[in-house]
């Protein structure tokens, strides 16, 4: 079993940007970081984003809205950025905003989520990106 889930996901072929949004944006000083993430999503500098709680999505949408980027973020997430959601509650919050996750594991836990995302990208690479 791979201990580092980021290594499993990336296979050494990318950069993992991790942000624990569920601890509170203000507590971590994460509002600026979330602004960078929102801008990166809109610019298509982000290939995938993983949501492990609906609170993470709510924080991101609040910051994106403050920047005037809420609609652009939703559009990017539905077209060019792969959205992975841990399970039904998180997926429902995304769906409420019009975002359809491409990756949702059968078992709503972190390990299966990372494995499902890795499998998605593995299939993507093996089929030529589409």
Describe this structure in words.
The protein is 55% helix and 6% strand. With 130 residues, it is mainly alpha-helical. It has a single domain, classed as Rossmann fold (3-Layer(aba) Sandwich). The protein has a two-stranded parallel ribbon. It is globular and about 35 Å long.
Number of strands: 2
Order of helices and strands: HHHEHHEHH
The shape, in one word, is globular
* CATH class bucket: Alpha Beta
Structure annotation, total helices: 7
Gyration radius, rounded: 14 Å
Work out the strand percent. 5-15%
Structural class: mainly alpha
Number of separate domains: 1
CATH 2nd-level architecture: 3-Layer(aba) Sandwich
Low-confidence stretches: 21-28
Strand order of the largest sheet: 1-2
Termini, distance in Å?
A: 29 Å
Portion in helices? 40-55%
CATH third-level topology: Rossmann fold
Give average pLDDT, whole number. Answer: 83
Biggest sheet statistics: 2 strands, parallel
Short description:
The chain is mostly helical and 130 residues long.
Question: Tags for this entry?
Answer:
130 residues; mainly alpha; Rossmann fold; two-stranded parallel ribbon; 7 helices; globular
